[in-house]
Amino acid sequence: MSSPSPDFTDPAKNPYYDPSLGTGLTRRASKALIFNQKGKYIEQANALRRQAALEAMKKRIAETARKVGIDEDMETDKAFLREAPPEIEWWDQGLTTNNSYDDIDTGNLRITTEDSIITIYIQHPIQLEPPQEKHIPPPKPLPLTAKEQAKKRRQKRMEELKEKQAKQRLGLEPAPPPKMTRANMMRVMGEEAVKNPTAVEARVDREIAERKNKHLQANEERKLTKEQKLEKLQQNREKDVQKGIFCLVFRIENLSSGKLMFKINKFAEQYGINGICILNPKFNLVVAEGGEYAITKYKKLFMQRIDWTDSGGGGGRGASVEVGVAGEGSDDEMGNTGGVGGSAVASTVDNGTKSEIDKKQDLSNNKCTLVWEGQVKTLGFRKFTTKPCPTDALAKEALSRAKMENYWTVAKNWLKAT
Length: 418
Description:
By secondary structure, this protein is an alpha+beta fold. Helix content is about 45%, strand content about 10%.
């Protein structure tokens, strides 16, 4: 092999020589050993232990405050504070480089770049029907006057009679027997009525009784059985709920009367209303959910029909007259009326029975307030229940299962706002 050309050995003549790369090889300097100071990791471990102990102490304090129920009063104002807006909205994140609105000033926007989410193509979204239109009731037909209704009924009956007579002429149906009464039996029977009027009269009475029995039997056959009535009632409730789910939130100052508790629970059971009744020493909260028809009736019961200042006997007897149902209420139907504070009364005490205590309760200042009403997306409760909650924390915990704990905060501060 020949030696390289002198043009390549001389750096000044070599066209491929780059002076920035250097000529010699540099060796990597070895790292010196660095020893940790004594007690370094011991201090870190002690710091972690102190932090864990501090967190445990905070947790115990919060748990104690939750049991006592003082955390609600301390954080009442915070419950109404709105969260701070985010640094960047989610719909703008794909258009910025550093997920910050500062990119607008610096020009680091991904609008005309290749990886931009904005393209030359047009997206045609699928058109969906508005969800509120399925709840719109169908248009009602034009109402007819009394004369028009009678004329329409008369024409319909005439058409049915002509069709029946045509079938009888063709032999498709047998001709009905003459309808005899005491008024026309002489004209129908003729000579036979003259010869033996007693037998003809007995025959007429027998036919009249048969027609009456046939009519009563047809009415009994059209009646629904108990199972069919319950099925029809359930279908009507489902249709009512399909039109939309409505919610009511009531604040009641005192529910110590068993009579009031019976009406609340019994009426909710009759109309298939779901919800909860929370008994608390400060006030009582009733949340009701159901269809439009049931909720309208329930609202009328609370706002118009029930006398909240009535401190009469607390028994269930006679309370059904108020809600429009015949029957007597048992102790089970009263539904968890035993509770706490001024919201419920124990079954028996040393001074007397429950009914005697209810009579002594002063409900002159008792009132019911509608805190909120509106339409919700889904049902939050499976049935209507009554639950004693001595503290605010327990009340909010009972409502948190349906994600309605804000109702308690709004109801608690309702009087302050008004």
